[in-house]
Amino acid sequence: MSDASLNSSTTAPMAQPGEAEFGDFFALLKPRVMTLVVFTALVGLLAAPVGVHPIVGLAAILFIAVGGGAAGALNMWWESDIDSLMKRTSKRPIPAGKVTRDEAFAFGVTLAVMSVVMLWLATNAVAAGLLAFTIFFYVVIYTIGLKRWTPQNIVIGGAAGAFPPMIGWAAATGSISVESVLMFALIFMWTPPHFWALALFMKGDYHKAGVPMLTVTHGRKSTRTHILVYTVLLAVLAIGAAFTGIGGPIYLAVALVLNAMFLRDAYAIWRRDEVMAEADEYRVEKKAFKLSLYYLFAHFTAMLAEAALAGFGLGGWV
Ligand code: HEM
Ligand SMILES: CC(C)=CCC/C(C)=C/CC/C(C)=C/COP(=O)(O)OP(=O)(O)O
């Protein structure tokens, strides 16, 4: 490879326009993270007390997925400089020299506009407006605004990832309700412990890239305390939600088990120091991160089960 085809700030290869393959564009959509995003949107849509025609429901979920993917592509467009510095992200399509920044930008904007317009045509203006706002929030407020500026980036920016069930609910009902706001709140409170557990074992990455994550600005001990505090608040919210319109006995059982497990892990993380964590290669932190994914999946599955039973006149506490 000639020097001219290397990126000047790193030794990463530079992409040539038009050479990217389908898989490279697909990777820009952050498909793995978006699976859970799309699942929470699906639960929002199905749990709503208004029946949706299956074709309309399928179209709505597809457009929400495309909108989420577009937001991921625009995030990678803006962050290609720091992505090339971090081990975890250095193989992404732009730093790996597969897709140019201009291609990623055009791809992201096209899909973002298309997803919003199509969701509007398929469902209603409230759902489309929420999708547009979510994309804007993730790309402009979180990625361009907060992420490189404040360690509260995750706490505030996490709202972006909490909107999808509200979008799903709005696609079915055309409105926002207490139930969909509760789903939002659950993801909002869940995001900080989900991310900070990972930040603890992705040691050095954010430091190297100069991103002011809590681990970098306030240190690792403080991050451990933050995880515990947020997990306690999350448990109160998640268990309390069992006694609202999205809950019921099945949800309560799931919430009690999962929150006990998550609290146990958060407490173990808080009790540890770096020497202990280094010794077992961050086993507890890795376990908590993995559990965070099951945690959210299980809570939303339980909400879906309650809503399905309600359809037969059996859900909730009545
Ligand atoms: C600002 C908020 C969030 C931040 C900073 C964050 C950060 C991360 C990071 C850095 C990873 C590591 C894996 C990767 O690079 O792909 C990850 C994984 C993951 N996140 Fe999050 N996350 C956030 C919110 C969410 C939300 C809202 C969801 C879904 C509702 C979610 C679902 C997932 C899933 C499913 C994975 C595992 C992906 C895999 O298997 O590789 N995250 N998250
Ligand atoms: C419908 C719609 C628009 C949904 C968007 C959902 C959304 C905003 C999810 C956020 C999850 C996510 C990819 C976080 C990564 O944070 P990061 O970008 O800081 O992580 P990185 O370091 O891996 O790039």
TrEMBL record:
<comment type="function">
    <text>Converts heme B (protoheme IX) to heme O by substitution of the vinyl group on carbon 2 of heme B porphyrin ring with a hydroxyethyl farnesyl side group.</text>
</comment>
<dbReference type="GO" id="GO:0005886">
    <property type="term" value="C:plasma membrane"/>
</dbReference>
<dbReference type="InterPro" id="IPR006369">
    <property type="entry name" value="Protohaem_IX_farnesylTrfase"/>
</dbReference>
<keyword id="KW-0808">Transferase</keyword>
<protein>
    <recommendedName>
        <fullName>Protoheme IX farnesyltransferase</fullName>
        <ecNumber>2.5.1.141</ecNumber>
    </recommendedName>
</protein>
<comment type="subunit">
    <text>Interacts with CtaA.</text>
</comment>
<dbReference type="InterPro" id="IPR030470">
    <property type="entry name" value="UbiA_prenylTrfase_CS"/>
</dbReference>
<dbReference type="GO" id="GO:0048034">
    <property type="term" value="P:heme O biosynthetic process"/>
</dbReference>
<feature type="transmembrane region" description="Helical">
    <location>
        <begin position="58"/>
        <end position="78"/>
    </location>
</feature>
<dbReference type="InterPro" id="IPR000537">
    <property type="entry name" value="UbiA_prenyltransferase"/>
</dbReference>
<dbReference type="InterPro" id="IPR044878">
    <property type="entry name" value="UbiA_sf"/>
</dbReference>
<dbReference type="Pfam" id="PF01040">
    <property type="entry name" value="UbiA"/>
</dbReference>
<feature type="transmembrane region" description="Helical">
    <location>
        <begin position="99"/>
        <end position="121"/>
    </location>
</feature>
<feature type="transmembrane region" description="Helical">
    <location>
        <begin position="223"/>
        <end position="244"/>
    </location>
</feature>
<keyword id="KW-0812">Transmembrane</keyword>
<keyword id="KW-1003">Cell membrane</keyword>
<comment type="pathway">
    <text>Porphyrin-containing compound metabolism; heme O biosynthesis; heme O from protoheme: step 1/1.</text>
</comment>
<keyword id="KW-0350">Heme biosynthesis</keyword>
<keyword id="KW-0472">Membrane</keyword>
<dbReference type="GO" id="GO:0008495">
    <property type="term" value="F:protoheme IX farnesyltransferase activity"/>
</dbReference>
<feature type="transmembrane region" description="Helical">
    <location>
        <begin position="127"/>
        <end position="146"/>
    </location>
</feature>
<feature type="transmembrane region" description="Helical">
    <location>
        <begin position="250"/>
        <end position="270"/>
    </location>
</feature>
<keyword id="KW-1133">Transmembrane helix</keyword>
<comment type="similarity">
    <text>Belongs to the UbiA prenyltransferase family. Protoheme IX farnesyltransferase subfamily.</text>
</comment>
<feature type="transmembrane region" description="Helical">
    <location>
        <begin position="33"/>
        <end position="52"/>
    </location>
</feature>
<feature type="transmembrane region" description="Helical">
    <location>
        <begin position="153"/>
        <end position="176"/>
    </location>
</feature>
<feature type="transmembrane region" description="Helical">
    <location>
        <begin position="291"/>
        <end position="314"/>
    </location>
</feature>
<feature type="transmembrane region" description="Helical">
    <location>
        <begin position="182"/>
        <end position="202"/>
    </location>
</feature>
